[in-house]
Amino acid sequence: xxxxxxxxxxxxxxxxxxxxxxxxxxxxxxxxxxxxxxxxxxxxxxxxxxxxxxxxxxxxxxxxxxxxxxxxxxxxxxxxxxxxxxxxxxxxxxxxxxxxxxxxxxxxxxxxxxxxxxxxxxxxxxxxxxxxxxxxxxxxxxxxxxxxxxxxxxxxxxxxxxxxxxxxxxxxxxxxxxxxxxxxxxxxxxxxxxxxxxxxxxxxxxxxxxxxxxxxxxxxxxxxxxxxxxxxxxxxxxxxxxxxxxxxxxxxxxxxxxxxxxxxxxxxxxxxxxxxxxxxxxxxxxxxxxxxxxxxxxxxxxxxxxxxxxxxxxxxxxxxxxxxxxxxxxxxxxxxxxxxxxxxxxxxxxxxxxxxxxxxxxxxxxxxxxxxxxxxxxxxxxxxxxxxxxxxxxxxxxxxxxxxxxxxxxxxxxxxxxxxxxxxxxxxxxxxxxxxxxxxxxxxxxxxxxxxxxxxxxxxxx
Length: 462
Ligand code: GLY
What we know:
Blueprint: H1 4-17, E1 22-26, E2 32-35, E3 38-39, H2 46-52, E4 60-64, E5 69-73, H3 79-85, H4 91-97, E6 102-104, H5 107-118, E7 123-125, H6 131-141, H7 154-165, H8 169-192, H9 199-212, E8 216-217, E9 222-224, E10 244-249, E11 251-254, E12 257-258, E13 261-266, H10 273-291, H11 299-316, H12 324-329, H13 357-361, E14 388-391, E15 394-396, H14 399-407, H15 417-420, E16 428-430, E17 433-437, E18 442-444, H16 453-460
Parallel strand pairs: 1-7, 5-6
Antiparallel strand pairs: 1-4, 2-3, 4-5, 8-11, 9-10, 10-13, 11-12, 14-17, 15-16, 17-18
Bound molecules: glycine.
Glycine binds at residues 219, 248, 260.
């Protein structure tokens, strides 16, 4: 937890942006896995964590803008509970530690909200993503749980998004700590991978690193020799000599901040020449894209430039043909690079996606493309100092997609299907780092994780 001044300052900034009414913030509660006492690891709601810092289940907060009053609602444990949990701080003690002096048991929340409703005051709340909290809000506000998000406050949501988008120094430090744990995860994966191992053995080793650093994964690890499947959480293949595996993973070690890194690693420690050719194109795209990051530049333009570098690289290898600009305008590269170049990150690995992907990643009134590939671009807006984002280009050979495009002659004037068909068993390559936009440019966060072919092979053979 940060010093209480950090949370007080964050709330003061937010209060200035909302005209009137009550701001209602729901923390998360424990979620059962298979019965009530066997729970998923607790993860606090990120916005609750951001403004109130309390990483415990069962708290709700209210900020009354008109009366300038802040309250935390939560239930203290009984001695019977403490027999199982050990001594815990009271709600009042915890609230005080983040600069809030008014607390009450959760049952009192109903009274506060009913009083506001009967005086026709606005209750602002954020879009909800957990069923338990939708039901709680439904009970409190008398709105059907399926319709709750239709009543969330745009004014509050945009205020939170604009504030959380700009990371302060302490937040960047925490993201950097998470990236440094990723360094240990990736170098261990490189050193450990051997033909004959199961993917899950590597996944287990890297998860162990995060747990022993006192954290947890920031999302379920993607790790597979079938790297052509973009989010492959199936780790049961035995790795063979000559195969490469994509590992896309992250840590969350300090105050809930995430890292999100990807490397592609040869199972036997040496890339084949075919793999090297594709790897170099992805690497060049990633490094050139990072170089262009600075305030004022549109991330959509950086994405489109990345698509052009990939197209040129694939053309040089005989996989694509025709005019590079036309190919990208027509979305031909998306058969190989079907996702966006990156996304914002912070307390969430896709930062604030629960508040609305377009609100976070697109300018007001900007229309999101519906073209295959470009439609998946999560971050398209002009960059500002303090943004932290990922740069993660990739090239994939997805047999089902190749079949469809070949059969339907989609973008056939830009793709050499005869050559592409030689790569059907290739898999995929993705390379990703986490970048801070600074006042004058950018900074790649954390200890540099082996990335060039030489560096990756070197670490694989340590
Ligand atoms: N690194 C996983 C993702 O961006 O979805």
